[in-house]
TrEMBL record:
This is Translation initiation factor SUI1. Gene3D superfamilies: SUI1-like domain. InterPro entries: DENR/SUI1_TIF, SUI1, SUI1_arc_bac, SUI1_dom_sf. SUPFAM superfamilies: eIF1-like. Residues 44-110 form the SUI1 domain. Coiled coil: none annotated. Belongs to the SUI1 family. One of its GO terms (biological process) is regulation of translation. One of its GO terms (molecular function) is mRNA binding. The lineage of its organism: Bacteria, Pseudomonadati, Pseudomonadota, Gammaproteobacteria, Pseudomonadales. Keywords: Initiation factor, Protein biosynthesis, Translation regulation. Pfam families: SUI1. NCBIfam families: PRK06824.1, SUI1_rel. The keyword Amino-acid biosynthesis does not apply.
């Protein structure tokens, strides 16, 4: 029985390190973006003011969605709160202290949601 090896180019003098699966340079690898680590399965919601000149934001981390779905869900949360926000490195930032509004919305999706921080 032979195993099918993905094999392929792993280094190029022009491009540097290459992904053996998609054969793109590692900076532009599409394989790792498709799979999102689920972490410990707990969605955490917190408030932070650090580095924002005293302005508070609500941070939501650990949402078990892929990149595209997470972007769409972020937009939905911003509309429900009536404020702005953004998505940075898989963490949703919503302007203001919106924890009381967001907590039931996240629980409706069936996720385990915990308040973290103060």
């Amino acid at each position: 029985m032979s195993k099918k090896h993905e094999g392929g180019l792993v280094y190029s003098t022009d491009q540097g390190r290459m992904c053996p699966r998609c054969r793109h340079p590692q900076e532009r690898c599409t394989c790792s973006r498709e799979q999102r680590p689920l972490g410990d399965g707990v969605v955490r919601i917190s408030r932070e003011t650090k580095g924002r000149k005293g302005k508070g934001v609500t941070l939501i981390s650990g949402i078990p969605l892929a990149e595209k779905e997470l972007k769409a869900y972020t937009k939905e949360l911003k509309v429900k709160c009536g404020t702005g926000g953004t998505l940075k490195d898989g963490i949703v930032e919503i302007q203001g202290d919106q924890r009381d509004i967001l907590l039931p919305l996240l629980m409706q999706k069936g996720w385990v949601v915990k308040r973290s921080g103060g």
